[in-house]
Amino acid sequence: MICANTTAQSTFSLKGKVLSNGKPLSYANVYIENTDKGATTNENGVFSIPNLAPGNYSVAASFTGYTLQKKTVIIKAKDSYISFNLNEDDALDEVIITGTLKAVSRLESPVPVEVYTPTFLKKNPTPNIFEALQNVNGVRPQLNCNVCNTGDIHINGLEGPYTLVLIDGMPIVSGLSTVYGLSGIPNSLIEQIEVVKGPASSLYGSEAVGGLINVITKLPENSPRFFADAFVTGWGETNLDLGFKAQVGKKATVLVGTNYFKFDELIDNNNDNFTDLTLQDRISIFQKWDFKRASNRKLSLAGRYFYEDRWGGELQWNKTYRGGDAIYGESIYTSRFEILGDYELPLSEKVNFQFSYSDHDQNSVYGNTPYLAQQRIGFGQLIWDKKIDKHDLLFGTALRYNYYNDNTTATISADEVTMPSLFIQDEIAFNKKQSLLLGMRYDYDSRHGNIFTPRIAYRYKPTDNDIIRLNAGTGFRVVNLFTEEHAALTGARDVIIKETLQPEESYNITLNYLKKLYLDNGMYFTFDTSAWYTYFTNAILPDYDTNPNKIIYSNLDGYSTSKGLSFNVDAVFGSGIKASIGATYQDVSQTENDQHIKQILTEQYSGVWSLSYRNYKTNLTLDYTGNLYGPMRLPLLGDLDPRQEYSPTWSIQNIQATYDGLDNLEIYAGVKNLLNWTPNKGNPFIIARADDPFDKNVQFNGDGDVIPTTDNPYALTFDPSYVYGPNQGVRLFFGMRYNLN
């Protein structure tokens, strides 16, 4: 605020100093709000802003990674002096819940948990969580089909079914919705995303074998009264998030949000007569209630409805061709709803009852092959949180009901199972430097019997700035084949299930080291490195190699492993600059009959980075983000297939500018995929036999093998599973965000 009490004859200077923990903070930004006047502190933390007329001023001091501080100063008839003492805004002190099922500081958790906030999501705006995870180190969104563009999330090189996705800690995103449901969570409603790499089955049961992702939504009381976020891209994509919160009576607060996404452009830049990106019409409506209760006991209820109509295929396709064999298209209607809640019982002890229910209905066709499926998951658990001296105990019992049915030959009758569970966890705090977490879970599956999954986690903190964590545990996974393996539904390959599939089991050990480094000039760095080894028995991996015209599923008669190293550096520099970089090296392979084979569609190394620059005077922020993936083995259709056996090293890079100098409004614009990279580069084609998607002109011999002909010299069948990255090239985007607090 600047008053009109000024004189034209005299101007004065505002001088001062910026400190942190009593030490000078170099290169901090000091500026006067609503003007273009400002300065940067020198190496002694000193600044000076000249030529100020007398009046009242609101002065702000900021430094990337520190909490912004504002003060009011009155300039009268002489130079004025002001000082600031900034506090670190340390993301490592964020409260997390995923690693241990209870709220703790990241620094105190014996389980390494990575946290990604809305600031991370804003660096590269996306219409869904699936795409937003592309800049998380060791996490890769994998597309599984060139036609319908469905996908899953890989953690440390493991396939999507090994990753459990939670919403507010509830395991309602699995099976069918792991493939399709990740697109329906409005990004504007997300408080933070927590990622745990490595088995977490001792707390979360089946599917948390490779790791888990917990999407935590905003609390109504912490949300703006109204918010809107909309953007469009040069490809014609439109994304809109809208929401509001309201007080209902004296004891209830409700948060309502909706996401709408639409893309209806026929784009075929690789000239194969197939859509490069599926056409989509999607809406998701979310509602969350918080209730005030005596003694601040918790009661929250949330619900979401999701509907999507997506299709991809030949450019001539429309809905009159749905399910026929004249024009090829893959059309998917998805209807889904969820409810979830958390109720703290009115007891002297801290006991919570958490529950969720989801109903997922999918009506889809892949060419002339229908896939009609329903999945219903009910989940409830009681958790007793009890502290006794140095022991922080957690007792729990859970019951999970899963109903699944489809029209495939693999599901003769509906698969219906109820799985009871018991788990216990004890975190022992020996002293300020050392703690030990012991956990054990018991599940009973009527199909497979008793299942035990123990784990141990040790934390050693030699100094306030160094943490060493050693985690070990087991995991298990019960397979629902068609809900998890989209390749089994699309294309012309025959699906062969050789035997009754048994649960997979895993054994994992992870060593993590984290260090914080503070420099005298105010810069600080966070180094986070991990090494892991996971051993699988009974692994179920699709076999594309034995017969190129078949996908063979069976339990591996041998073992598979995932091992590797990851390294992250977060850096806060002066002058509004913040950067992060991460790299992962991994070896994921299987051994059977003394043959050692690299896992298909798994990169050996990857990297991610982000660079942000904030200019406080102009209210502009520049973000540069990117990722890089090393070669991965791809699913070829035989020795004559002319496509590359390994993908090249490839990278997606993005740049964005954001202006937030207007009240409650942000304007952002940028370029996605700056290098214009697409997977068709260097390949004669991506989709095999795109000109004959129903294999009407393919000839087979008596053994079912394809015969090379003049029309089909490479002996191929129609197959869109040769995919390892997005088909979208370079494109502009423009958007606006509005928040009314």
UniProtKB/TrEMBL annotation:
Residues 107-211 form the TonB-dependent receptor plug domain. It is a multi-pass membrane protein. It is found in: Cell outer membrane. The keyword Transmembrane applies. The keyword Transcription does not apply. Residues 273-674 form the TonB-dependent receptor-like beta-barrel domain. PANTHER family: TONB-DEPENDENT OUTER MEMBRANE RECEPTOR, TONB-DEPENDENT RECEPTOR. This is TonB-dependent receptor.
